[in-house]
Amino acid sequence: MCAAVKTLYCVGRNYKLHAEELGNQVPAEPLIFLKPSHAAVPLDKKTIQLPQGSGQVHYEGELVLRIERDYVPGISVEELVDTMALGLDFTLRDIHNDLQKRGLPWTPAKGFRNAAPLSPYIAFPSKEELENTDFTVRKNGEEVQRGNVKNMIFSLQTIVDFIGTRYGLGKGDVIFTGTPAGVGPTLPGDTFELYWGDRLMGTCLIG
Known about the structure:
Elements: E1 8-12, H1 16-21, E2 31-35, E3 40-42, E4 47-48, E5 57-59, E6 61-67, H2 77-80, E7 81-88, E8 91-92, H3 93-102, H4 107-110, E9 116-118, E10 122-123, H5 127-132, E11 135-139, E12 142-147, H6 156-166, E13 174-176, E14 184-186, E15 191-196, E16 199-206
Parallel strand pairs: 1-13, 3-9, 4-16
Antiparallel strand pairs: 1-2, 5-8, 5-14, 6-7, 6-13, 7-10, 11-12, 11-15, 15-16
């Protein structure tokens, strides 16, 4: 089981190439949305059931921060975060596109059950290790996404400050920090493997 999640924050469009691949503008400040905690599910080799009959379901691989203590102004991300994971932000893309066009909240496209699979947590790396290590997503054995904090539009420190000052951050909160380019559709029978460098962090089969 993944550790209990209190509040699940997500950062949208935090990689320039990803924003461009979906035809979206690059945001001037972090674009924050929420998923219900019920969306979190362990990424532990088991089958994950996703909605059927609602158009395309897209995968979005992300680096995920787990918050250890309450946010206070001036705290560093290294003091605030104790562990990290990798996750998948599953999205009902057709519904998401329609909601964006109509200016409506994203919850129907982002907040369904099993929409936020999480790998087991590992110790939060040093800044040097973060910048020297890529995370990757492999779909059916082929790499489809590769990301690195160096390519984020908004740094991890900027993200925690933005969320902490506006909405609050406390122990048990998690932050999906954004997805790199390469998102795409998934179908029943697909397998996903998430890697931190050469380390396999989590796998799942789509039911």
